[in-house]
Target: Protein phosphatase methylesterase 1
Amino acid sequence: MSDLQRAWAKAKLGIAHDAFDEAEEEYAVDAPDDDSSSASSASSVSSTGTIVPTANQRLFARPNGVPRGRTLEPIPWTTYFERELYMEAEDHSVKFHAYLSSPVEKGPLFVMHHGAGSSGLSFALVGSEIRKRMPSAGILAVDCRGHGSTTTANESDRDGTPGLERPWRWRTNLAATQPFWEGWFVGLSKKFLAAPGGKLLLLAGTDRLDTELTIGQMQGKYNLQVFPEAGHFIHEDMPEQTAVSLVDFYKRNDRSKLVLPPKVSDLLRQGKKV
Model:
């Protein structure tokens, strides 16, 4: 509403200038004068996605911020796992630490093995998502040697090293290790394809698949699931999608509910004709 129209309305209705609330007038929507103006306004709104704000929408209100009482303390592991275990090797050289959520009755147990620089808590979210979709499933996440709360017998030697008298600057000739790079992974794809049982490979992209894995995937030797939006740790970046893939893979390969026909030898032993 223009200033001229506002002044005319005040004079027509006998309203004093100071009685008019300018704040409420800011949110008032002009009424269309005729059908042509209404059609023009509707087309403008639909084409640009413009929404006229009202007093109760609070479109430009400030965010509330962090709720009071919320701290930056880490979430306890008991939020995702039932208990922790310590398993010591026979030679007492290492004591492995693990997080466990026990399976219910005859439910499956998902054993999680993390990568370098991580820990068993890396599977906290995906384990929680798995149990949402399969409440009878169990989750076992182990802290590998040198990671998490797993301890080794020679850690005291490392802690007891005296301080150096002068600082050292360590330099490693990485080029000298190049002949050993390929040897670390030679034959790994072939061993993966030759392993018995069902196999599922989760990747963030297929650009690094070698020839053996590409041919094996075309031949149906394993299942391949690609998550283009994920990073190196797929189970941390996309825990829900990872849990769905793992649960579906288990259900497709679950043979506990299969009813197999009796063997011929058993029928003959029972005196039945075959």
